[in-house]
Design goal:
It contains 2 helices and 10 strands. A 7-stranded mixed β-sheet has the order 1-5-6-3-4-10-9. It is an alpha/beta fold. The chain is globular. The longest helix is centred in the N-terminal third of the chain and has 12 residues.
């Protein structure tokens, strides 16, 4: 496992602040896990989970005390991406800006390459 920052994946200050707030309320959980799975409207989808520990093939992304785990296979799909947390009229959510995605669906969690 290794710690990474740019250029693989970046984490905005807004996302780090929200991750820290969420993890402070979760007992025994130290990480937000971001992964890519097959499925969804456009072929692939982002998945957000909590985890207690990093696995051997995980990359650890850190900013302002917030720690995000990304496994090696998901990292291939996420290279160059930015993880942000946005608040809009219809709600607040984590948003991934992925330069590898050639299309995305309206829900914002599904994409294709």
């Amino acid at each position: 496992m290794s710690t990474t920052t740019a250029p693989d994946v970046t984490l905005t200050a807004s996302a780090a602040k929200r991750i820290n707030a969420i993890l402070a309320k979760q007992d025994g959980v130290d990480f937000l896990r971001v992964s890519v799975e097959g499925g969804g409207c456009s072929g692939f989808s982002y998945k957000f989970d909590f985890d207690q520990a990093a696995k051997e093939d995980d990359i650890i992304l850190e900013r302002d005390g917030a720690k995000v785990l990304i496994d090696e296979m998901s990292l291939e799909f996420l290279k160059g991406s930015q993880i942000d947390f946005t608040t809009e009229l219809i709600g607040a959510a984590f948003k991934i800006s992925n330069p590898n995605a050639t299309a995305a669906c309206g829900c914002g969690t599904s994409f294709s390459i």
